[in-house]
Amino acid sequence: MNPNLKQSVLVLKGIGEETAENLAEMKIYTIQDLLEYFPYRYEDYRLRDLVDVKHEEKVTLEGKVHSEPSLAYYGRKKSKLMFRMFVGQYLIKVVFFNQPYLKNKIVMNETITITGKWDAHRQTITASEMQSGQNNKTKDFEPVYSLRGKITAKGMRKFIQLAFQQYGDYIEETLPLSLVNKYRLVNRKDALKAMHFPLNQESVKQARRRLVYEEFLQFQLKMQGLRKFEREHSPGLEQNYQETKVNKFIESLPFPLTNAQNRVVNEILTDLKSPLRMNRLLQGDVGSGKTVVAAIGLYASVTAGYQGALMVPTEILAEQHSESLKRLLEPFGIKCELLTSSIKGKRRREILQALADGNVDILIGTHALIQDEVTFHKLGFVITDEQHRFGVEQRRVLREKGENPDVLFMTATPIPRTLAITVFGEMDVSIIDEMPAGRKAIETYWAKPEMLERVLSFVEKELVKGHQAYVICPLIEESDKLDVQNAIDVHTTLSTYFQNRFKVGLMHGRLSSEEKDTVMKLFSGNEVQVLVSTTVVEVGVNVPNATMMVIYDAERFGLSQLHQLRGRVGRGSEQSYCILLADPKTEVGQERMRIMTETNDGFVLSEKDLELRGPGDFFGKKQSGLPEFKLADMVHDYRALETARNDASLMIQSQAFWTSKEYEYLRSQLENTGVLEGEKLD
Ligand code: ADP
Ligand code: MG
User: Fold this and answer.
1) Residue 567 CA, closest ligand 1 atom number
2) Distance CA 141, CA 46 (A)
3) Can you spell out the DSSP letters for 514-539?
4) Is residue 435 lining ligand 1, measured as CB closer than 6 Å?
5) pTM of the complete model
6) Is the CB of 291 within 6 Å of ligand 1?
7) What does the alpha-carbon distance between residue 221 and residue 228 come to, in Å, rounded to a whole number?
8) Which ligand has an atom closest to residue 293 CA?
């Protein structure tokens, strides 16, 4: 990057202290920032034939005034100016809000040009701009920038023009020429120019194509560079596990591993043995059998003389995992312990002591695992389940409880490939994309809330067969209290409905862990047949006799979350059902319900979810770590992303890359991350 462009906007003749301060509010500090402050859309001033204009489309029209304008005031400062005009052979209505002064400019039979939004049903244009006479705009398009503070649209255009005039010649090509030629990309300078001073639609399109590719390529170089660096500079443990023992353990399982499980187990074992540190993401749909895979990995690590840790987001899940690991591993002489915040006093001290002495092999727990007081004797393998629920910081703390332990992140939220290759570009990814044999696909139905009676009689049919049901209550965001109230209400309704026939239990986040435990035990022992719950059951809970899942207000959940909830059933050999009670008002909402009824494939759903909600919403607003692109859109520019990823991978593999100009650029990008100094990074 040319150093001239890194200078403050103050060096531009025409920009003073005050403007610079105003620009800083928009995060524009340097000339480069200004040049790369792209319009978010363009005003289209081309004249159009009304026949081609769609409802709600923004358009510029030229025509003849056909009625005297009428001006009406309402409120203190509000006004509405209205008249008719002929556009070609069409007579349309024109409305201007709050621009009363235009009244004098509207003269019968004169030609005027207006720009505004077309309402095809009312044959009306709500206009924002007008000129007397024919369309005299010299440009067909004008960029529209998102603006803050004191900066005006006109000002912004001027500043960018100044930047181009005085520093435009310093804009350099950042892409390798071979790629520019290969994809016939516009050069960087022309691309930036076309974005700000568009000649026509095609030139903007080509400019955007180039800049999107550039953003993706640089991002991919950075991620893959990091990964290569991580691999080569993170000393790990060479865990020489005992192969015979591990094989015996695998053979002892009550079922053969699926091909996908076998593949993933091999990937994990290879990582354990390698002297490089494992940094792996394991994705597998609910019920695909990740727990067993985790158990094999942990066992292998113990046979190599290390301790293992499994960190999960909720107590219920910790307890379940602890139970299944104990069941699987204790016959092989492995000591597993559970540590949660509800284990206190003497018991806690004993566990901590045993852990520090090396008398516990595998520790399973919640956040409790990362407390200061927790010290391992020789931690070698860390697994976190539902990794996106833990922050980067928590994962780092856990990892630092050992010396370069191998790390595996597991998630049942299938992450769309699109995101996986961006967000997790620096990790290795393993995927279990196969379900254990003999599972029946869950049948999913979408019902309107007024059909509740029929839904309940359907539920009852299942209960009569001796099966059990989950009922998930409406989700009220950011209000734990209302969530709980909802659950209590639904519980009351259903208790009355099933009175004397079936028992209805209640589970929500306000219960103490003992209470939760009791409820869960009653449900898994079939002493309670219907479990009314908030979303606390979302992850991990395993009751194979439950064949029915009813989800209230399903439209409030994301597709991936619905899929997670649905995954609570279909765990046994019986046919299971999921009923979505929902009355979505929007088309997207209805589409989402339909998709749920059509597929059981978590990956398909996650792709759809991403498409419908956009990447920002996918992990929830708070989730950081999603890259922010200036122009590129991970969903819509997906093909460019894939291309860029492949190109980046070729570049990084080639020796020449590490001495190239592009590498210099990448280096400058990595400078603040600490990677180059060999710091550890998450
Ligand atoms: P996940 O954690 O991926 O949601 P689990 O590990 O809890 O899935 O597995 C779900 C169920 O499937 C468990 O009851 C487990 O014992 C069983 N299971 C796992 N792997 C297999 C397999 N290869 N064949 C048959 N059943 C399996
Ligand atoms: Mg699991």
Assistant:
1) 4
2) 8
3) HHHHHHHHHHHTTSSSEEEE-GGG-S
4) no
5) 0.66
6) yes
7) 10
8) 1
